[in-house]
Structure formats: structure tokens, C-alpha cells
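Per reviewer request, we include the raw input and output of the structure prediction for the construct analysed in the revised manuscript.
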Amino acid sequence: MASTKFTRRQVLSATSAGALVTMAGWPFTSFSMSSKLKDSLAISGGTPVRTAPWPSWPVWNEEAESKIVEMYRTGNWYRNTGKYCDEFETVYAKLIGTKHCLATASGTTALTIALHASGVDAGDEVIVSPFTFIATYNAVFLAKALPVFVDTNPETCLIDPGKITEKITDRTTAILPVHIYGLPCEMDPINEVAKQHNLKVIEDACQAWSGKYRGKNTGNLGDLGCFSFQNSKHLPSGEGGAVVGNDDAVMDLCRSFHDCGRHYGSITSESRYPVRGANFRMQHVQALILMSQLKRFESDARTREANAAYLNEKLNEIPGILPIKLVGGAEKSAYHLYPFRYKKDQFNMKPRDTFIKALRAEGIPCSTGYGPQNKDGLIEEALNSRGYQRLFGKKRLDEWREKNVLPGNDQLSEETVIFYQSMLLGSKNDMDDIVSAVTKIYENKDQLN
């Protein structure tokens, strides 16, 4: 009789004692029961799988200190009198593959600048991914525009391109897809819809510095791309951001707008301040930190990608644990966070929070993903404001509320569990600890309460 091989998922799904006895002589591809995993869960008083610390973040490079001190001693601290922000912009544009880069004060200000330069104005509507950090739609609100949420595909964490067209109105001016957690959106159909309806595409790539889609970097797949360099990011400077693009005139407007409306390139007139603007400038110290952090950026990205691929393979074999899928055309995720879905029906219907507490007790830091943020309080605060009542009227806002039903996003918000990006900088043994802890919880799920 031919030998039959079984995966970890198939083995673990055979939960009855009789089935395990029957399978005792079967060969398994990648699974073996260990006495350690049969122990009581740590949350029930057992021994944790792991007690060792995880890699910390951010990681300081002492080599950066001499240049930072030198910059401060010159007295050229102001963006427009020093050179370091310009140097960073040149290097970062080359890294992303765009013609231009504008360094900004934050990822949020990058989004604000990009929306303004793309013509988004008061009373407009912007198609937005709902599974994202609040900065994405806060930037739309700051433009006095209306964020219109399109449902999420739970298998990818990303906006569903097939549901965009039905949300477009005569007020829609832009699409704002989010490469959340570094996962590249399916940009071809998004760009096709935008082309059909004459809309701008602004990529929120604030968590996606090294993602790739069909041979191009995230941030270089639409009209403009926006990045963040906040402390938790792969390229950190405490705060900071960037707008990248290839259109000279649009990037000139971005630069003028971020610098109080001053002249720049094609933005000129007899007036000293030809356009509206604000102060969204990066500081030189941030640029110097970023230049230093770039020295480890590519090697870190390779480590995260390799460890994420290993986790995808191993966790996929455990019933009820579903790693997030890359969309068609996506070649690489940045893995700012590593997400997977927890299916409680494989864990005696115990809620996700119970699973997370058990996993943390085993020495594995984890958290929930983003919630149903299309229902955040800040949204109703905006819709009920005097300005939005004037701009959109009661009828349109009531219609917005009626259509703000996103079952895919709700499902994803209830199921997602995430690991922090610094964990992916660990060793293969560290990844094995994650797999062992999740497996242990599954094998001892009767102890969950």
C-alpha cells in the first residue's frame, strides 16, 4: 500500500483519541507531537514556550551622532538653509524609483499635501480603504472632503477593487488605497477604475517602504505616494514622512504647499506667496537619522520577508490560523506588521481576545489588527459639524450612513491577530517559538476559558 503524507493541519484536525491512534503509524510532512506542547497552557499555570526577549526597535546607529552634532554646530537647522533634507530626498526618490521626493513632517502631513496637490477640495469625495490607521481618513477630513469607504477583502486586508465603482459619485475626485501592513494593493484594477472616471490615485504607502507590485515599488504605482517615518516604522526618525511622484508640476505644488505657499519651480508669480500653504517641513536632524537608518534597511527587509514566508508556511498548517494572502501581481510585502486570521470555530468558539491572552502568556507578543474604523466617533463628529452639514447636506450624509456597511471589513476586524515587525528580525528559532506557541494553544484549546 502506498504511503500517504499528511500536513500539520490535517493531523491537528483529527482531534479524537481514536483518530490519533489510527494515525500513529502514518508519516507526516512537517509535524510531530512534542511533550512540551502537551503541557498545560501558560495562562493555566504551565511553562511558557518562550521567556527570552524579542528584538527591540528602533535600533540606534552611533555613527550618525557625529554628523548630527556637526549639523547643530553650523547653526543651519532650518530646512531651507541646510542640505541634509535635500540629500535624503535624492536618495529616497532613487530607492522608490520616482523622479521626485518631498520630505515632510509626518506621514499624515504627506497625505494632506498629496490630497491638496491632487485637487481634493471642500465638498469632494475620496474613495478610501477602511482597514487602516486613522491618519488616512483624518487627512481627507482635513481637506473638508468626505471619505467614502469601500469594503475590505478579508483574505488580503486590502480594499476590494471590484467594489469601488459602485461608490463613485459626481463628487469623487480621488482614490486613496492603503498598502496596510506593507501588503501591496491590487493596483491594476484600481488604476483602471481611476482612468475610466478621471480620478487621481494617491497611495497610502505609510507602512509599505519595500513592497513590490508587478516589478514596481509601492508608492510608485499611482499619481502620488505617501510614506511615514514615525518611530515604529521600518525607516524611523521619530516623526517624518515623504511624498513621491513623477509629475513635475504636481510635485512643485506639493513643495510650495508644504512650505507656506512659497515659490517653487513652476509655482511662481509676482506675489511672494502665490498659493495657499502650511508649514509641513522635515527637520535636518530627521533626514540625518533616516540616512543612517537606510544603511540597514535592505538587509532588515530581507530578514522580515524570509521570516514571514516561513511563518506563512508553518502557521498555514494549523487549523483555524489563516495567514493573509498577497493579491495577484504582488511580489513582496514590507511586513510592517505580520497579520493572520483567527477562526474561533477551530478553537472551541473561544473569542479572539482569549486566544491573544493565551499567546501572550506563552511569551509571544501580539495584538488585534485595526477595528471597524469606518464607525469611529470622529466620523460622526465630522458629519454632524456645521461645515459638513453645509457642504453635503442632510440627504447625502444620511445616504452615506446607510451605505457605510462593510461586512468584509467587519469580519476582518474580528479575526485579525498581528505580530510586531521587530519580531520578524529574529532568528528561525524565534519563528519556531511562535509556531510552537500557536500549536500548543490549538492542542490544548480545551484549557481556554
